[in-house]
């Protein structure tokens, strides 16, 4: 964060990167796309507000999750990373069904199952996904 | 979208809801929180831009996925809905491991497995998750 190399955010916003810049630790000049995506999707002022409301040790994870969401939204403007959530939820349901069937087969032959088994549909209760594709 | 009941977006932004308002079909006055969250996280102008770049039939899904992301970010400012992705990925890996073990048990006793079985780690290749918690 020297005067010679402004962070990617200040470079993008064409402003001087001052000591203590809230973006500098998380947007190094070598990764210009990271800030460009975050700026396009969330806006610099929303991200500044969000980071200021967090404790310093939480900010790196927050920036990385925002960058992940922003990149997903740039790649898929309709679903963004919610597309990944839907896909993963379908995969969890399919795997749970297959596992239940395999465990039922093992039980049918009097064989104990290797895993304790977890109740299905935990995900639905935790995340309350909304129906996206009607 | 009559003059008597502006959509939730125009009400929030304190502006007149004109016929053809891009927000009106997706932000009914009965759901004020939906727009409030989307506005707080993405900003009204970013959402307007995004919707204008989509085809009309894509906009409802886009708004719903934005509302889902925004609500997740309001509830968890550090991880947002990326927390759900990490959780689901761990669940997929665990279920895949348990299923592999159950199928191995069935194969060990010469029993055919009820499911064809899918190669593991497909998710990692598709979504390229970044390590969020170091």
TrEMBL record, chains A, B:
Name the record gives this protein: Protein LATERAL ORGAN BOUNDARIES-like
Domain LOB: 5-106
InterPro entries named in the record: LOB
Organism: Camelina sativa (False flax)
UniProt lineage: Eukaryota, Viridiplantae, Streptophyta, Embryophyta, Tracheophyta
Record family assignment: Belongs to the LOB domain-containing protein family.
UniProt cross-references to Pfam families, sorted A to Z: LOB
